[in-house]
Amino acid sequence: MTYKVKVENVSKIYDMNRSRKDKLLSLFTFGHFYKEKPFYALRDISFEVEPGDSVGIVGLNGSGKSTLSDLLGEATVPSEGKITINGTSSMIAINAGLDQELTGVENIKKKCLMHGLSEKQIDERYNDILEFSELDDFINQPIKSYSSGMKSRLGFAIAIHTDPDVLIIDEALSVGDETFSNKCIEKIKQFQKEGKTIFFVSHSAKQVGRMCNKAMWIHYGELIDYGKCVPIANEYARFITKFQKMSKQDQLDYKKEMLTKQQEKSDEISTKKYHRPLLRYIPIVSLFGLFVYSVLLQLNIF
Ligand SMILES: Nc1ncnc2c1ncn2[C@@H]1O[C@H](COP(=O)(O)OP(=O)(O)OP(=O)(O)O)[C@@H](O)[C@H]1O
């Protein structure tokens, strides 16, 4: 079967340099010179998703779930590798793509236009979006004054009315009241019946087990399991039960140890890639050559 989403050897590297000068140096030398070492928030992830699949993404805090959903929702681009989506994607995350300074009405228009809807289509769908979001008169307020639940409701209402083929739901259901969550779940089920592809980011193995046919477990930047939902959700639930039985201090120590390992692996990759003795000087020498050449041109020496 042809895939709906194909992710090939994708990594997301964060530039950890703080000052503008260090960031620029790292940028212009293609990462060869840096003060702070880069961080691989996701490392060499590959998977394929078939049309109509509902994929649950689980993992501890800081494992890389939101980074992956941002990549799938095309809010950011991979640092390495390739993502191919056959169709349009729409992301529902708290705040995803919403402009804090604009009102609810303005955000509806902006996001719908970004998803390729015409002014006429937006006018036709506006009342449905407003009704689904349950925001009533608050829709005319800037969304910076909204609670996280209100933002999530607006984000959800807009996303489901933009006809996406691929829907990415990032923790949108963990805020807000239960009645609204149930309404969203009904809507998601309707999307599933229509054969749409769904990614569902959640901390809850139970929710993933109920909603998805496939699952992936991301652990500190690595994809450690992907396949049929129930066995993975069960395995993750067992891990979480064990984790929660640990003392607060042991949990912190575990997270610290994992993060240190993740940073060590990031260092290993960057060292291998960027610290080949001669190669590391090529970008800076080329830039310097270009600079000298342009100065000579300005001086009419050629
Ligand atoms: N802009 C950034 N710059 C540097 N590091 C970042 C940035 N965004 C995220 N990270 C780091 O990348 C890793 C993955 O973060 P991400 O938010 O994707 O995890 P998550 O699994 O979604 O966590 P949570 O469940 O808490 O939302 C974390 O170590 C985080 O600190």
TrEMBL record:
Residues 5-245 form the ABC transporter domain. Keywords: ATP-binding, Membrane, Nucleotide-binding, Translocase, Transmembrane, Transmembrane helix, Transport. The chain crosses the membrane at residues 278-299. GO terms for molecular function: ATP binding. CDD domains: ABC_KpsT_Wzt. InterPro entries: AAA+_ATPase, ABC_transporter-like_ATP-bd, ABC_transporter-like_CS, ABC_transpr_TagH-like, Bact_Polysacc_Export_ATP-bd, P-loop_NTPase. It comes from the Bacteria. SUPFAM superfamilies: P-loop containing nucleoside triphosphate hydrolases. Pfam families: ABC_tran. The keyword Nucleotide-binding applies. PANTHER family: TEICHOIC ACIDS EXPORT ATP-BINDING PROTEIN TAGH. Belongs to the ABC transporter superfamily. This is ABC transporter ATP-binding protein. It comes from Jeotgalicoccus nanhaiensis.
